[in-house]
Amino acid sequence: MDQFLAFTVVGLSTAAIYAVIGSGLVLTHTTAGVFNFAHGAAGMLAAFAYWQLAVGWGLPVPVALAVVLLVLAPAFGLFVERVLMRPVQALGEAERLVMTVALLAGCIALARWVWDPDTPRPLTPFFAGQPAVRLGPAVVTWHQATTMATALAIAAGLWFLLHRTRAGTEMRACVDDRALAGLTGADPLRAGRLAWVLGIQLAAIGGILIAPTVALDAQQLSLLIVSAYTAAVFGRLRSLPLTFLGAVVVGLMEAYLAGYLPQNDYLPGLRLAAPALLLFLALLAFPHRRLRGRDRTVVRVPLPGRRGSLLLAGSVLVLALFLVSVLSEDQVISYGTLFSLGVIALSYVPLAGYAGQVSLCQLSIAGIGAVVWGHLGAHGELWALPAAVLVAAAVGALVALPALRLSGIYLALGTVAFATVLDRWIFTLPAFDVLGVHIALFDQGSVSVTGPDLFGLHLTAPAELLVIAAGCLAVTTLGVAWLRRARFGRRLIALRDSEAAYATLGGRLLVAKVAVFALSAGIAGLGGALYGMQLQTVTADRFNLVAGLPVFLIAVVGGLGSVGTGLFTGLAYVVPTQLLDGLGPWAQNLSALLIALAGMGFAHSPSGVIARLKADWAPLGRDRPLLTVLLGVLAACWASAALVPDGGPPSLAVALLAAVTLRGRAAMREAAPVDIPPEWWGVRRPWRPEDGEVLSRATAAAS
Questions:
Q1: Which of 157, 299, 291 has the alpha carbon at shortest distance from 233?
Q2: Closest to 127 measured CA to CA, from 212, 12, 15, 216
Q3: Cα gap 436→442, rounded to integer Å
Q4: What region does 138 belong to: left with phi over 0, alpha with psi -120 to 50, or beta?
Q5: What pLDDT is stored for residue 349 in this prediction?
Q6: For residue 136, what pLDDT is reported?
Q7: What pLDDT does residue 523 have?
Q8: 148: closest CA among 201, 209, 61?
Q9: Beta strands 138-140 and 133-135, pairing class
Q10: Which run of H or E residues covers position 189?
Q11: Residues ≥6 apart with Cβ < 8 Å to 371
């Protein structure tokens, strides 16, 4: 009994922290209409800032708390509301979701950049020198008592603010209808600022309270928010009392699992994954109507042409041959992963771009493809590659279960929970048998991965694996482009636009969602297997939730509806990272920070940067003489880079300069007014949409 009470006290103390953080989530969502995925990252930054002030610089604890909670946290909240969230407030839920995901990745990268993750930073609990309080057989430390008292005070204060003050009434009214609230005299901007300031302050309080009990690690502290997600979902993102109840359930569950879970090799990860597993089950169990997203995607999905798709696939192969002929073996190893990561990124196109289903667990599913190939294809057996694709597709169909009744942020939460369960439990399991079938994942370590056997040759050289990955990316790109033009692709677009209309017209939601999730997961599994081949040894850390955020963000920046997203993501992820690594250890997290900043910048431009690039470079593609000159320059630069020692960087600079110059020249020539007879329209200059109307009027006037 004494042990049970001790675990209960620990659980209630942890529950109080989850309640504080979860109440901040509910406050932001209820008043500003935004589910902040970066809420835990804000608390993490507050904990690091508190450590820096109180321990690093030796300021008194009250002064450090005052600076963090009364200066830094409100300033960060104002920054997020004014600079990041206000520009996308009028856009869809997907844009706001991407913005908060980018903020999460940026906060983690910033913390790792400023505070070396290899340096331990212990924090002393509050009132550590005071003797503990005994309540019968239970012992309560002053830190635990302070945590629970703080949670109760915050609960009372929030209830009073939201239901007994004009500011709280304004905050609740603005989330329902900002325009109507403004007509009644409310100030939506002021309500939004107040909501973000209070939400970030609550995250800061939770981060500071929990930091002394866990390692001060950027990723770990940021992902503790998953437990607060569960508490907030218990409250259905609206009810503070139910959120506190959910926090108590999660806190006690973690404490009791830590105390009573049997000790063996298979269950320790279950305790860490239990909040995410509970979140996944809660999303499935709670009433359907309450947990539906209200997102309407209005971004047009481009229809790829056959010629353009073939040109893109050919460009992938040409780029692969260029890299193999120019780079050294070490450089091929460094840059070769861009094609396999491109395949993984391409899995977002049919799922999120065509069908409008948001998933944040694609890299985790790619990890399944990698380990399946690593075990079944240990000697290069080629049949193991389609087996890895099929296993990953089966996992994707499992992920589709919450997609059958959720959308928007709730579907994103479900995929986050799934990825967290894989990271914390499934990927940490040792090998086991199920119905006589031996199953091995990472087996609590790393998995060796080799190349495939093709036509009697065992391909293991980095250049060979790079070409194989490029070929798979080219074929997959053509397949995704064909899918957009096929009947199933058109059905997915209709599903994205309106699920109700799709079902009313005879579409089968169950079949369509399971099929697109399985298809995208199969593509991710293929990319994961190729990625593992090039790494040769893979660990679970390569495929966790945080590692997948930059890939998702670059795909968003490129444009989730464009088939060129795969190649763009691979280039944008690998090339800057390799270039920045040469600057020194201080730049290791700079690339992740730049990716997060790019995600924040392009969240309010859903069409993506690829559409802009296509429009900017289209004149050069239509100008055959200048295009011929460019191809000649590129061929000469290729030959120079391959034949001249260290000729790669100068040749690349010349090629880029020539391309930019010729693109500008082509744009000027196309824009120049030229008096071309109507009979030559479409021959000497491109056909324009208004030309048909002009010719029709001229014909009518002549008759």
A1: 291
A2: 212
A3: 19
A4: beta
A5: 93
A6: 66
A7: 96
A8: 209
A9: antiparallel
A10: helix 188-210
A11: 440, 441, 442, 447, 532, 538
User: Measured between alpha carbons, how far is residue 382 from residues 363, 378, 386, 528 in Å?
Assistant: 22, 10, 8, 15
Asked whether 263 and 59 are in contact (CB, 8 A), the reply is: no
**Structural contact between residues 513 and 507, judged by C-beta atoms closer than 8 angstroms:** no
CA distance 384 to 378: 9
242: phi then psi, degrees, rounded to nearest 5? -70, -30
For the chain, 703 residues long, the average pLDDT of each consecutive 10-residue run is 78 88 84 81 93 92 93 92 78 74 90 86 82 73 88 87 76 60 64 85 91 84 82 81 88 85 79 86 67 51 84 90 85 88 94 87 93 88 92 91 73 88 87 73 82 81 92 95 90 81 76 91 95 90 89 88 91 85 68 82 71 82 84 85 73 83 81 65 69 70 60
**pLDDT tens digits, residue range 391-436?**
999 999 988 877 677 777 788 888 888 999 998 888 888 877 776 6
Collapsing DSSP to helix, strand or coil, 596 comes out as helix
Q: Residue 163: what pLDDT?
A: 77
What is the rounded distance in angstroms from the CA atom of residue 291 to the CA atom of residue 431? 37
Q: How many CA atoms lie within 13 A of 617 on its CB side?
A: 11
Q: Which two tokens stand for residue 285?
A: 């169990």
pLDDT of the residue at 603: 56
Token reading at 466: 């790079």
* DSSP summary character for residue 119: S
Please give the Cα distance from 38 to 28 (Å, whole number): 12
Reference 5, options 250, 256, 182, 331; nearest CA is: 256
Chain length of the chain = 703
Are the CB atoms for 105 and 225 separated by under 8 Å?
no
Shortest CA distance to 39 belongs to which of 115, 116, 99, 123? 99
Pairing of strands 437-439, 133-135: unpaired
What is the spatial distance between Cα 424 and Cα 222, in angstroms, rounded to a whole number?
14
Are residues 16 and 151 in contact, defined by beta-carbon separation less than 8 angstroms? Answer: yes
Contact between 23 and 202 (Cβ < 8 Å)? yes
Residue type, 157: G
Helix (H) or strand (E) holding 614: helix 609-622
Task: Give the separation between CA 500 and CA 507, rounded to whole angstroms.
Answer: 9
